[in-house]
Design brief:
heterodimer; A: 427 residues; alpha/beta; Aconitase, domain 3; five-stranded parallel sheet; four-stranded parallel sheet; globular; B: 150 residues; eight-stranded mixed sheet; two-stranded parallel sheet; 31% strand
Chain lengths: 427, 150
């Protein structure tokens, strides 16, 4: 891989050992990819926190958060002192909500360790957004901006909806990017790789948020990590729908970029979406495909008594919290069930101010931040059956927690929380 | 040569992703693998619900698969398998992505891609596989198809 003079100087150690380790990783990574060079980035989203007992023990035995960063954010063989971040860096979601650690079964010791780590992270100039949706809380890249993001649901939103450019980075590559302002120039940083590969024609209307989840789940399974181009939309989807759609497609497959003809910025027309490429295949999405996606998402569910309802994957928008609050107002969460809703802490501040937090709490639910059940592996004690309005969470949670999962609409989920019974159905 | 083989030797060539030499029993799947949420990093076991290898561990095996899918926690999940001592011995895959590239780099197991023949189609679970990633070569010693008792 070719390095320019500045990159070579960093690689040779001009800016100290941590930056040297970062460049060493970027070169190993870039060569593994077959990248020819690096590109400048001023927008990194990654994770540094240590929220598991393993990470805490690792830190305590090997030299604190510098040791965690050296090993898990730089893949360094030795522990090096970590300087402040060079590039604007946003922190993604964590392993628990520090404000609701007790409910999540997190020990006080782990919380204490996390709090110290949070000071370290902020002290190094990382923004404590602590969400899988940084684009909701102040990190909205410009079209064409080169980014280094992890979190598959955020990556696909960044590329497809915002028209910024990022690959799905990982903990180590974002760590290296935050100290150098560099990332391999490969994949979705290049024009030609952003063009469509598969055409998806809609034979059914896709309108509700759960419709978008089903469509995303179908497309991901069909195209894996290719670039689908969806035509035939009858309405413009909002943030919550595209957030759900991308997260679903990135979970069942590995979709990092897509086009919605007439809606997303690099697909004003079908011709623009495909450029000089031709569709490898045309997929039709009709009633049968939609039903199959629904059945796959519900394939673990048998028992209709619901112990736990989790909403907020990816983290809820304020509009979704408003909707949940309206559905909950005047009702109570059933004594045999529980309701946890996850959102970025900045949006929770707004929900507090708008009175939604009080409505949710008065009903017996919790509005939580920074995490989710899949990230934390945490659910209310004794949970065997969950209800979810997120295709992504329904994809992952049965494997992670060994639970049964029902997938349905937000209204069906809130109803399950309030009655303790799943009454949702394919509609 | 290994006593259990039926004598057939296959050779594949590809491009080095991560250097090094390793050998082991093949674990082959034609399904993409999820890292975070798809494997248990403490045991190296595939846990994804509908995955054909669900319940099987790749620890010490030569993992042969099309590529990575799912969460960006892929690299960290495989990085942790190295920390826990349950990483694959080597990785052979056909579809390059940032997830698999970074994951292979931090797992530090020899890894090869861009093959002259499809390793997923040619190599069978249970075959003995020698990987020389620096040279970009893979030698496969065919073992009889598993009978269920082996």
């Amino acid at each position: 891989m070719k390095l320019n003079d500045d990159e070579q100087a960093m690689y040779d150690g001009r800016d100290g050992p941590a930056v040297q380790r970062a460049m060493d990783l970027l070169v190993r990574y870039g060569e593994a990819l077959g990248a020819e060079r690096l590109v400048d980035t001023h927008n990194v989203c990654g994770t540094i926190s240590a929220t598991t007992p393993f990470m805490r023990d690792f830190a305590q035995q090997k030299g604190g958060m510098d040791a965690v960063f050296s090993e898990f954010n730089l893949d360094s063989d030795d522990v090096v002192a970590i300087p402040p971040m060079k590039t604007f860096t946003s922190h993604l979601q964590l392993g628990f909500d520090p404000a609701h650690a007790e409910q999540m079964g997190i020990s006080e010791e782990v919380v204490q360790f996390y709090r110290k780590g949070e000071g370290y992270i902020a002290g190094h100039g990382v923004q404590l957004m602590n969400t899988c949706t940084p684009y909701q809380v102040g990190n909205i890249p410009t079209r064409g901006e080169h980014c280094a993001w992890m979190e598959s649901s955020a990556v696909v939103y960044c590329n497809a909806v915002l028209g910024a450019r990022t690959n799905t980075e990982g903990r180590e590559s974002t760590g290296a990017a935050s100290l150098t302002g560099k990332i391999p120039y490969w994949g979705y940083h290049l024009d030609e790789n952003r063009l469509g590969t598969h055409h998806v024609a809609l034979d059914v209307e896709v309108s509700s948020t759960s419709d978008w989840g089903l469509l995303g789940y179908f497309i991901g399974e069909q195209v894996q990590d290719k670039v689908p181009v969806v035509s035939g939309l009858t309405a413009v989807p909002n943030l919550a729908r595209l957030k759900h759609f991308g997260a679903a497609a990135a979970s069942s497959g590995g979709v990092e970029m897509y086009h919605l003809v007439g809606t997303t910025p690099e697909a004003l027309t079908v011709e623009q979406a495909f450029g000089r490429k031709r569709a490898m295949a045309t997929l039709r999405y009709g009633e049968a495909e939609r039903r199959r996606a629904y059945e796959q998402l519900n394939h673990t569910a048998r028992d209709h008594d619901v112990d736990y309802v989790m909403l907020g994957c990816p983290h809820y928008t304020i509009e979704q919290i408003w909707e949940a609050a309206r559905l909950l107002e005047g009702r109570k969460v059933h004594e045999n069930s529980a309701l946890w809703i996850f959102t970025p802490s900045a949006i929770k501040a707004l929900a507090d101010r708008n009175g939604y937090t009080r409505i949710i709490e008065d009903a017996g639910g919790l509005l939580m931040t920074d995490s989710c059940s899949a990230m934390s592996r945490a659910a209310p004690k004794g949970t065997k059956v969950v209800a979810l309005d997120s295709a992504k969470q329904a994809h992952y949670l049965p494997a992670i927690l060994g639970v049964q999962a029902w997938f349905g609409s937000t209204a069906e989920c809130i109803d399950a929380a309030c009655t303790g019974r799943w009454k949702g159905a394919y509609a | 040569m290994n006593a259990a083989n039926d004598g057939t030797v296959l050779r594949l060539r590809g491009r080095k992703v991560v250097g090094g030499i390793a050998e082991g029993e093949a674990l082959v799947t034609d399904a993409h693998i999820s890292g975070w949420g798809g494997i248990d990093s403490r045991t190296g076991t595939i846990v994804e619900m509908r995955h054909p290898l669900r319940g099987q561990s790749f620890a010490g095996k030569v993992l042969v698969f099309p590529g990575a899918k799912g969460s960006s926690g892929w690299s960290n999940a495989f990085h942790l398998t190295r920390s826990m001592g349950v990483a694959p011995a080597a990785m052979l895959f056909t579809e390059m992505t940032t997830k698999i590239a970074l994951g292979a780099v931090v797992t530090r197991a020899p890894a090869i891609t861009d093959f002259d023949q499809d390793p997923v189609a040619l190599i069978r679970t249970g075959d003995w596989v020698r990987v020389d990633a620096d040279a970009g070569t893979v030698e496969v010693i065919r073992r009889p198809a598993a009978t269920g008792a082996s």
